Amino acid sequence: MTATRPGAAPLRPLLQATDVSMRFGGVKAVDSVNFTLGEVELRCLIGPNGAGKSTFFKMLTGQLKPSSGQIRLRDADITGAHPHEIARAGVGIKTQVPNVFNALTVRENVFIGAARRTSVKRADAIVDEMLVRLRLTSIASLAVGQLAHGQRQWVEIATVLAGEPELVLLDEPAAGMTQDEVHRTAELIGEINKTHALIVVEHDMPFIRLIAKTVTVFNQGRILMEDDVGRVLADQRVRDVYLGKQAA
Amino acid sequence: MTPVHLSARRRSGLSFLAVVGAGLAILFGAPHLVGTYGLVQLTLFAAVAIFALSQGFVWGFAGIMSFGQAAFLGLGAYAYAVAAIDMGDSTVPVLISVAVPMLFAAALGYFMFYGRISDAYIGVITLTVSVILFQLTNATSGSQYHIGQAELGGFNGMPSVPPINVPGMPDDQLDQTGIWYVAMGSLVVVYAFLRALLASRFGRVVVAIRENETRAQLIGYDPRLYKLLSFTVSAGIAGLAGCIYVNWGGFISPTVFALSMSAQVIIFVLVGGLGTLLGPILGAVLIQGLINAAGGQSAVDPNLGLGIILVAFVLLIPQGLLPTARALLARAGSRKEPARAAAETARPLAAQPLAPETRR
């Protein structure tokens, strides 16, 4: 699973979370989670609502500072760093509720994503490439605030990818999409995974089957199991937590 | 690049040239068309228009609720007055009038933005700071309050402030026509500067942060830094307006820090159109013209009249004059060429500062 890249030491994970916890008052939203992701790995996170997936994502991106534990990206300790610092270190996220620049056009949105790392001229080239790749060229001049939910999600994905992150986090990328859009998103994830590591949070089981190799299951702030997608989806405990059979 | 994108860029370039061209025509035409009295009035319009641009930029584009811009206007005005009296030559004082408000804004902004003060409280703090400065300068009566030879003069202010002179020649002071060229020239330069700034990567990121701070952060921009820089730039522009304001009257008093100054400039921007640059200029000229006219009559209290105008605008033309005019033009155009206009109406909508759903 762990592919090596030139320059990266072999067997060193891209992302490593050690004993990470997040407490809100007396509630433990995430409880001593250990999580490791290799270079160019694709991982799916599943779990019922409130299992701690989005909280975990927020800690990975710096939107929340963990109550305890450590998060490392390659050699860098990014625990509790500012979101913009973590983004610069190479982590990009599509959030659950699309975060886009509503009054700006599609092109302008993607430009902002591309322009941080590079010259304006190069950024314009990246934008053109990204618009074609995500099939947004025909709506490039429309304000993102006017677009349908699925299109807004793709604009957000394009904006994130334009920044050329090492690790892409997608929080429910298929939510609210039509069947065609879901298939296109699955294809896209495959394409991204050729060069980037990804963590995908999703509830849509057919979609998980379409894209997943390894799946991590969250439940009540802890990792319930982590295994190959086939074994996870066949597991009785996983079925139970999704159907709510397990008593709290 | 799609054709629509190109045409939007070209249209933006044309509008820029048209506004700068009109500004230059007024700059060089006005001395031939109006007498000295008219020119003095126009100089005041140019000063308040620059002040309105500072508010229009910081609020309409950076989304910072700086409701005490008069603090920077006053600091610029007092900095110029004090420096000009002490130094004789006006060249450095003009620079000081821009630098002092910028330094003050950088320090104040650092604590506000890096201290994660929320938007509404930034409004409260900036407003309060302008009131504090008003009270402070008001309390400087007496000869013990002086900076060098310049006595601050408390609520009476500082009379006979020397006007701008030809750089390096303190005895060669500008007359009212000369001050007009400086004032209107500054307005054109500030407008062009802000247009260029907004077209740059920095300006585009500033607007993106206004739209969605979280997203900008998650891409790797530090919103605190961009807001601090925008706030500081706007303070420098307000300071320049203050410098021209002193040169217009040859006199400065604490009323430049007054709440009514901060309130007026907000009204200029709202009336002209939040999220545009030309709008605040037009709003400033229109409202300042009304204020001047109201001063010459006694039927209606000027402040009451101003309040009524503000309420009427917020209720009837909430977008402001310029965006409303643009929307009407776009609608008129769409009746003629429905297909082409349908593709292009997206642009004027996008150019508005706050999309309808975010404007609450």
UniProtKB/TrEMBL annotation, chain A:
Keywords: ATP-binding, Nucleotide-binding, Transport. One of its GO terms (cellular component) is plasma membrane. CDD domains: ABC_Mj1267_LivG_branched. GO terms for molecular function: ATP binding; ATP hydrolysis activity. Gene3D superfamilies: P-loop containing nucleotide triphosphate hydrolases. InterPro entries: AAA+_ATPase, ABC_AA/LPS_Transport, ABC_transporter-like_ATP-bd, P-loop_NTPase. Residues 15-245 form the ABC transporter domain. This is ATP-binding cassette domain-containing protein. It comes from Lichenibacterium minor.
Automatic annotation (TrEMBL), chain B:
It is a multi-pass membrane protein. Residues 338-360 are annotated as: Disordered. One of its GO terms (molecular function) is branched-chain amino acid transmembrane transporter activity. It comes from the Bacteria. It is found in: Cell membrane. Residues 340-351 have a biased composition (Low complexity). Keywords: Cell membrane, Membrane, Transmembrane, Transmembrane helix. GO terms for cellular component: plasma membrane. The chain crosses the membrane at residues 12-30, 36-53, 58-80, 92-113, 120-137, 178-198, 225-248, 306-329. InterPro entries: ABC_transp_permease (IPR001851), LivM-like (IPR043428). The keyword Transmembrane helix applies. Pfam families: BPD_transp_2 (PF02653). The keyword Transmembrane helix applies. This is Branched-chain amino acid ABC transporter permease. The lineage of its organism: Bacteria, Pseudomonadati, Pseudomonadota, Alphaproteobacteria, Hyphomicrobiales.
